[in-house]
Structure formats: C-alpha cells, structure tokens
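Human: Note token order:
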Amino acid sequence: MGVMRKNVMYRSLVAIAALAFGIFYSFYQPSRYGLDLKGGVSILLEATPIEGSLDFSSMERLAEVIDRRINSLGVAEPVIQVVGSNSLSVEIPGVRDTEEAVSMIGKTALLEFRLKESDGTIGDSLLSGRDLVKAEVSDNMGMPVVSIQFSSEGAKTFHDITKNNTGKQLAITLDGEVQSSPTINSVISDGKAVISGNFTYEEARKLALLLSSGSLPVKVDVREVRVISATLGETAFDSSI
C-alpha cells in the first residue's frame, strides 16, 4: 500500500512539474510559436557603442527604434528581446522580403548636415537627424525627393546655419555618405529641407521610413539570420554573417 501511494505521489509530482514547465515555456517563448505557424525571419544583432560605453538604456533605445522600423514595414507583432549585455534578438513573423527587413533593421541611418569646403572636404556635423520630426516622400519636377521637417530647436539651428553660411554648399550626409550638396541661397526659417539624390521612388520611400523611425543609438552588426518556414519547427534557411 505504501509503495502504491509513493507511485501515485511520484506521478502527481511529475505531472505538476510537466505542467509548470509548459506554462513557463509558453510564457517565456511566445515568439517561436508565431514564427513556426506563420514563418518569418529571426535576426541576431550585436551592438557596439558609437561613443562612450554600452549600457542597458542604449539597448532599450535600440529596441524601440527597430520596433518602429519594423512597424513601418507593415509587419505585425515583432518580438524584440535584449540578449545578454550587447545583443538583440529580433523575430518577425510573416515577413516576405527578408533582405529588406535586414537592411531596414541594420542600417544606422544617421542624417547629418555639414558644410562642404571649396576644396571638396566635408566639415563637422552642424545638425543631425535626431532633430527631425517628419520625413516623407514628395515630388520635385517629376523626381522623388525626401522632404524633412525639423523640431523647433532644430529649425532654429538650421536657421542659424543658413544665415551664417549663405553662398556656401551644405552637404547632406547619410551614414557618412554625401547624398546631395545644395548651395545655401537664402536664410531658411521654417525648418524645412529637401533631400535629393537621383532616388527611385522606392529608395526615397525607404529613406523616409528610416529617417522617420530615427537613427540607431549604437552601431549594430548582423550576426545571424534564420529564415523559418511556415511548417512547424522546420528551418528553411540558416546562415550566419
């Protein structure tokens, strides 16, 4: 009789442990179920500080910016988690264009305004995209451009730049690459500017989305990309970068 009671108690404990594990797993692993059902992409990013040190608040800001970028793609329910001290796991169920998703997520998208000297050299940053409040695609004589609007503080800085440098070229750079270098013909007081660069409409659209979501607060490297098929548990493609 004692042996039977022990067996019953043992089985009960096993059942309780299994139930507890199931609850724990479903609570802490919600994203995998979505990826397995819908398919999608899993991306592992490694962050390094642009300047100073890397802290948890930087990783949280990184997660917020990437979340805005993914939402701009029209993808629902991404799962973004900080892993360790310098990595970020991004899982996007149902994504169709993997290359676009990776490009949108990993690009720093730091917009800067710098004076271009007469010898062609580019000066220090005078204003950055962190002061933007709006970026959208517009048309300029049949060519797609990106129209931007600065915050009140950014507009004041832009006013001072154009006032003090009339007649000079102002280089507009994205991640250090010059997009255009218009000449400052007059003082600009309304905080508006246009970025042109022989863009296609799709290129202008992506640039506007990147600028609207904000630049990444840290530098990121894509360490792993895994494309998950819609078949439960089956990995269609697995590559490390």
